[in-house]
Write a structure and sequence with these properties.
With 177 residues, the protein is an all-alpha fold. It contains six helices and no strands. Helix 2 crosses helix 5 and helix 3 packs across helix 4.
Length: 177
């Protein structure tokens, strides 16, 4: 009963939705970083010339894309120099920590194809691979959540609200476009 009373408290619900919006916002930023970095993998140019997530990533190219994305973010939130000094390392360290998981996920995908196209279906191996894939996803999710929380602490409530509004505006356009 007490739990039901808490879920009906408008202030707690409002705080929850604000936090969810901020997490979505930062998650969108992180996803954008990843997509742009993956799209430039292996020295290829652009999204259409390379497959998503294929090939090695050049650390210099990843840093270049992160810098460009951060500059756009700083303008959108009117970041102070102190915020810039804190946000840059948060984003760059998260990307550095997540890149090794990319290789492991690619390897797991290759092994999945091998298992499913082999002469015999090895259900135990498929299950083990599924469990490994979930563990990798959990590691990535945990690291992204940590980076999102770290970045949210650097921003003011007004900046978080502005970013959330921009994400919601873009979501509507993407949904219909």
């Amino acid at each position: 009963m007490e739990n039901t009373a808490q879920t009906r408290d408008p202030e707690k619900r409002r705080r929850f939705f604000k936090r969810a919006a901020i997490a979505t916002l930062i998650g969108g930023i992180a996803a954008g970083i990843g997509i742009k970095a993956y799209a430039q993998g292996g020295g290829r140019c652009g999204w259409h010339r390379s497959s998503f997530g294929v090939g090695p990533l050049d650390p210099a190219t990843v840093d270049e894309h992160l810098e460009r994305m951060l500059k756009h973010l700083y303008v959108e939130i009117d970041a102070t120099d102190e915020q810039k000094a804190k946000l840059g390392p948060i984003v760059k360290q998260a990307a550095k920590d997540l890149l090794p998981l990319r290789d492991k996920i690619q390897d797991a995908r290759k092994r999945t194809v091998e298992l499913l196209t082999g002469d015999a279906v090895d259900r135990a191996a498929i299950e083990a691979l599924r469990a490994e894939h979930l563990q990798l996803a959990e590691q990535a999710s945990r690291r992204i959540a940590q980076a999102l929380a770290d970045a949210a602490e650097v921003l003011t409530p007004a900046q978080r609200k502005e970013l959330a509004a921009r994400i919601e505006k873009h979501r509507g356009g993407w949904r219909h476009g």
